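Help! Submission page says 'invalid entity' but I think these are all valid:
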Amino acid sequence: MPAYLTDLETPCVLVDLDRLAYNLDRMAAYAALHGLALRPHVKTHKAPRVAAEQLRLGATGLTCATPRELEVMSDVTADLLLAHPPVGAKLARVLALPPQVRLTVALDSAAAVEQLAAAARRAFRQVGVYVEVDVGMRRVGVQSPEEAVALAELVASRPSLRYAGIAFYPGHVRERMGEQDAKLSRLETDLRAILDALNAAGLTPPVVSGGSTPAAWRMHEVPCVTEVRPGTYVYNDRTTERTGACDWDDCALTVLATVISTSVAGQAVIDAGSKALGREPMEAAAGPNAAEGFGALLDRPELRVARMSEEHGILDLRHSDWRPSVGDQVRIVPNHACIVVHLHDLVHGVRGELVETSWPVAARGR
Amino acid sequence: MPAYLTDLETPCVLVDLDRLAYNLDRMAAYAALHGLALRPHVKTHKAPRVAAEQLRLGATGLTCATPRELEVMSDVTADLLLAHPPVGAKLARVLALPPQVRLTVALDSAAAVEQLAAAARRAFRQVGVYVEVDVGMRRVGVQSPEEAVALAELVASRPSLRYAGIAFYPGHVRERMGEQDAKLSRLETDLRAILDALNAAGLTPPVVSGGSTPAAWRMHEVPCVTEVRPGTYVYNDRTTERTGACDWDDCALTVLATVISTSVAGQAVIDAGSKALGREPMEAAAGPNAAEGFGALLDRPELRVARMSEEHGILDLRHSDWRPSVGDQVRIVPNHACIVVHLHDLVHGVRGELVETSWPVAARGR
């Protein structure tokens, strides 16, 4: 029995199946064209069904951020990267993954190496390691070629670990956010210095792995990169569109909401607030820009969710003559799709007004 | 077998059981002292265990925002308020609550009244209605005494509905956020005008229901109010403390996180990012203040989570000589506890370093 959008209880998450298929194809074709290994980050969809499609289209493995993501994704591939150092109580859980899983971990400290080496030894496993290097994001990663060599040497000296390469996260490199060309050129210089030092030490990295959807489309311009780890490209969002990494019509994910009040003049209140949309601001060159709101209508991108409470979103209609009624449905393109998925347990796959399928956000939670 | 904080996989949510008990007692005592009915909003804890304790301490019923919250809470009380108009596909679900539930709904439009009246009639139920009035929040609620009378008359004319009173949400009335006294006085004037109009029309409201933790402590100064609906008071958070509605030592909820990187000078990276803490800013009189970060260390409130990615939080240590090591645990008081709870499936109840109990966030999700 087919269901229609009007049958759905709101707020809920919709994914346009045609746009999803196009987005998956486009990145797979880009990676194949340039000979880049594609290891998508599952944080965006957290769904085995989407991951399986990424693998079918040529992805060599998957990237995860949490033990839960690893566990769920071990059902669809044996080649998993944990792009987040597991320390403390997480370690035992990560090492308890099914034995066929070839696990690689990205890390940036001797402490994380020692903890991982000891836990892997106790679990009778060998774990691959990417040495995480900072190329300008200032979040994680060793800070110099010398530190990269020292950490790679430490990894190579531990029998329970396998030195698998280096990883970096170019989250600061975004189209239209200023200085993209200069940042790309700086990125290559920085990577080159690290690679020269590693080569000189006999520690040539088998893999040079970069990530991030906005930067992925230009990674072929950085010749030493061998692998990309984009996540958001499957769904895209207002931020991706703003960076120039996709068009508005490539935004596959929307939040379906219902108008619940029009009492206050100049606005309409919907049942999607911060607990359904997340309170992610649009970023401008100068930082977060709250004035841009927390999402925009799919069919009227000039209309925004201007304010939110936990279960209320306020559509600002002051500069529009469109006036919805209580009970009308609207579709919101969020600022950040990954956060929206993390807030929901279920996603509906739609074509037009028809709900064709649904799937659980199986790797949500901890 | 007792568990200790160091046994827990991070990020996870901790609730200090002694502080929770104190917070529950304090609000119950306040309401009892002033003869106010207490109908706590469950959005903060979403947990039957905490709700049952609120009822044991004298709450007359519970307030919910979603069908899921209603369903889960119908196990602990039969007296439920849905403070969010159910329109569209939600209606059938809400009307399918167990027959013993005495449901009241707050709404502000004739469309919502008509939909609810028809659905209630079909379900052979009678549903109570609070007419929602706007007293300055500019979110939902009818805009004048005349509109309140018209909507109350419509409700009273429908056999499947029961006119149960009026509701307002004084979210704009916060201690230390400026003009609290003036706003309270204005609130009473506005309510008085609405009550006079309703009385004159023979529609004296049986209940005058207000909400919000920051304002709850002063609702006894608005004599016409008969019921309060605070939510956040059970856990409190950085925002509650800032408004003056609690002390720092009343913050019962923290996020336990682990330091995973100290590579970049002047900062430490923890494994709690926006997917564990939420991206809720601290509010200042002039609006959101991103410079205050997204949480503060329980034991060092001057140290803040300055930046976040989805699974990374950056502790800014530039103005401190404290230097944690990879693997160290920290406890973060979030800016907004309700959002943190909504991001997690489980809460651990702790005393000191001991994990005494755990409970599910049973009413999370849709």
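Support: the input was valid. A stray whitespace character was the problem, and the output above is from the cleaned input. The first helix of chain A runs from residue 17 to 33.
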